[in-house]
Every structure is written in C-alpha cells, then in structure tokens.
C-alpha cells in the first residue's frame, strides 16, 4: 500500500524543509500534492522508487518529484551502520502563479515543474555543488531564505545532466512536448495503445506525411515512432503491474504488445528487470488509495 502523506504545510506557508541525519530509511513509499526536492548523501546502494522507476542510488542523490507522484527511498544495499544525511524541501503547487511562470526570466522554472511530473534525477555534480546551499536554506529563516530557495529552483532548472525517471505515460502531462501536433498524436496513441498502431495511421490522424511525422517525433522526443509508442505502452504496463493482479500475459496483450517474448525484451531493456521482477519489487506497495 502506498501511503498518502499529509504534509504539515499550511496555506500561509511557502515551503518547509527537513534536515535529517539517520542510519536508515524508515518512511514508506508515499505521495502528496506538493512538489518535493530530496537530497541524500552517504546512502549508496539504497533503492530509489519514483513512479514506475526503481534504481540503486549513488553516494550523492538529488531528485525532484511533482505533485502526487509516489516516491521514496528504501534500504537495499546501503550500509545502515553509516549515518546518511537527507534534506527534504516540500512546497505547494500554487507557490508561483501562472502569470509569473510565463515571464521570460521564470520560464526555466516552469519547465522544471513540468519535467518534475515524471521525477527528475540531477547529476552528481549538481548535487555536490548545491549541498552547501541546501544546508544554508535549512539553517536560515525569513524572507532572505525564500530568496535563496527561488535561486535554488533556478539553479536546478538550468543545471546540466538532469534526466526524467518515469515512463512518459506513467503520469498524464497535457503539454509535456509543447507541440499541438505531438499532443494530438500522444492523445491518439493513448486512446488506441492496446490496438495495433501503424506509423501511417498516426501520421494520417494529424494530417502529416509519414516522413514529416517521423521527423517531428524524433525532433520533439528524441525517439523513433516505435520507441515512442512502446514507451507509452510500457507506462500503462508498469502501472498495471503495480496496481492490478492481472497476469503478465494479460498485461502484455492488453497494452498492445504482440507477444510475451517481445514484451519481456522491451521491458527489460527499459527497466533493467523483467515484468515479474518489477512486480516483485513493488510487493506490498501495489494499491493506491
């Protein structure tokens, strides 16, 4: 069972921060309507869970997750005799209004918020460079601290080497690709992902030639049409593995894959484990209320 966390943020609060030193992770996988930034040092080998993403963490860990994405860190191969350092910042969705986010100077932060809907892993260099700033924010208070917090968001937004963690369809983002035609194609695939979809069908649906449509997909997503389609299907498959008791075979065909071996191969390439192993990793956290 995934735990819905009730954060202590009040309507009048801008953000809250926790600075903890402990030997192991004890909080369950959870979600909440606030954004969260999580910095961890000295817990190499622990397990990171963000949506349908699972991986071991390194010595330095810096992740941001958007509203209602379930996430958490679990003891795995980390040495629980060592003291780990964790700094967590949570802030509400309405901290910055839409008009402010549309200002040119703030747009990188707006893009940061969009990407966080799939979880963002920042580079080791970014985590190390921002460690002192995070510590200072945890120690200070008042308006100056809020300015430092905004600076932190901007530094995260323009940092190099960050990557999103979940599959693109694991959480719905209406304007993730910032393109009306890509959005239309995305919605078409979402409505038909369990069926056989040809690139010709998708291209015709948005009134483009196959060549132009394939080029657009590659430019906007960095993927071929087949890769784009399979990743969307994987997002639905991973959610079913977590939230339902459907068999692997049922999930395979219900998500549009044509055979089990192909599904297993694509799944393992993306998730670094088989569908069965993935489901086992989520044992005990499969129901969301």
Describe the 3D structure.
The chain has 289 residues and is of the alpha+beta class. It has two domains: 3-164, Jelly Rolls (Sandwich), CATH 2.60.120.10; 180-281, Orthogonal Bundle (Arc Repressor Mutant, subunit A), CATH 1.10.10. The protein has helices spanning 98-101, 107-116, 124-139, 143-158, 180-192, 199-205, 210-221, 225-243, 248-254, 260-271, 275-281; strands spanning 3-4, 16-22, 30-31, 35-41, 47-50, 53-56, 60-65, 71-74, 84-91, 120-121, 163-164. The strands form three sheets. Strands 2-9-4-7-10-11 form a six-stranded antiparallel sheet. A hairpin with a 2-residue loop joins strand 5 and strand 6 (53-56). Helix 2 (107-116) packs across helix 4, helix 3 (124-139) runs antiparallel to helix 4 and helix 6 (199-205) crosses helix 7. Residues 172-177 and 284-289 have low confidence and may be disordered.
Give a nutshell description of this structure.
With 289 residues, the protein is an alpha+beta fold. It has eleven helices and eleven strands.
Q: Any key phrases for this structure?
A:
43% helix; 11 helices; Arc Repressor Mutant, subunit A; Jelly Rolls; 2 domains; disordered C terminus; 6-stranded antiparallel sheet; alpha+beta
Outline the secondary-structure elements.
Elements: E1 3-4, E2 16-22, E3 30-31, E4 35-41, E5 47-50, E6 53-56, E7 60-65, E8 71-74, E9 84-91, H1 98-101, H2 107-116, E10 120-121, H3 124-139, H4 143-158, E11 163-164, H5 180-192, H6 199-205, H7 210-221, H8 225-243, H9 248-254, H10 260-271, H11 275-281
Parallel strand pairs: 1-3
Antiparallel strand pairs: 2-9, 4-7, 4-9, 5-6, 5-8, 7-10, 10-11
